[in-house]
Amino acid sequence: MLKVGDKLPAGTLYEYIEVEGEGCPIGPNAFDIAQSVAGKTIAIFGLPGAFTPTCSAKHLPGYVQQADELKAAGVDEIWCVSVNDAFVMGAWGREQGTAGKVRMMADGNGDFARATGLTLDLTPRGMGVRSQRYSMLVVDGQVKTLNVEAPGKFEVSDAQTLLEQARALKA
C-alpha cells in the first residue's frame, strides 16, 4: 500500500470537461498523473463512489466548502478520485457545485486504486472493486500525508483534517 514518502504511481486519470479551454477539448480528457502533479501541491481524496450517501453528503461537500482555505494553505489543486467513469464524475461534480474548486478525476478501471494499494472490495454489495476512502497531500509527486479510513468509517479523510495538515506543511 502507498505510504508517506512514496511517489504517486504512474498512470492516467480522466476528467470530463464541458467547455473547451487550455488545449483541452470537451471531455473526457486523459491526464498523466506524473505530469499533472509535477511542481504542485495537490490535495487528493478518494472515495468508494459517486452519488453514494457518505460521499455525497459529507466527503465531497467538505472539500468544496474548504477549497478556498486549502488553496490559501498552499494547495494548488484539489482532486476527487473515484472508480467511476468520467461522465459520472462530471455529472456528480455539476450536482455538487465543484467547478473551479475540485477536479473530478475518474479512475474508471480502478488502475490508480490498484497501483496505490487503496482498493476496497465491494463485490458482495454489487459495486465491484472500488477505492478505499482516503485523503493525501502530494508535493511534486511525493506523498507527504496519507489518511486512510477503516472500512465504513469517515473520521480521518475529511477536508478539515487535510486542511490542518496542509497548514502544518506550509509552516
TrEMBL record:
One GO term of the biological process aspect: hydrogen peroxide catabolic process
CDD domains named among the record's database cross-references: PRX5_like
Catalytic activity: a hydroperoxide + 2 glutathione = an alcohol + glutathione disulfide + H2O
Classification via InterPro entries: PRX5-like, Redoxin, Thioredoxin-like_sf, Thioredoxin_domain
Major enzyme class: oxidoreductase
Keywords: Antioxidant, Oxidoreductase, Peroxidase, Redox-active center
A GO molecular-function descriptor: thioredoxin peroxidase activity
E.C. number(s) listed in UniProt: 1.11.1.27
PROSITE patterns: THIOREDOXIN_2
CC per GO annotation: cytoplasm
Xref: Pfam families: Redoxin
PANTHER family: PEROXIREDOXIN, PEROXIREDOXIN-5, MITOCHONDRIAL
Family stated for the protein in its record: Belongs to the peroxiredoxin family. Prx5 subfamily.
Function of the molecule: Thiol-specific peroxidase that catalyzes the reduction of hydrogen peroxide and organic hydroperoxides to water and alcohols, respectively. Plays a role in cell protection against oxidative stress by detoxifying peroxides.
Protein name: Glutathione-dependent peroxiredoxin
Organism listed in the record: Caldimonas thermodepolymerans
Lineage: Bacteria, Pseudomonadati, Pseudomonadota, Betaproteobacteria, Burkholderiales
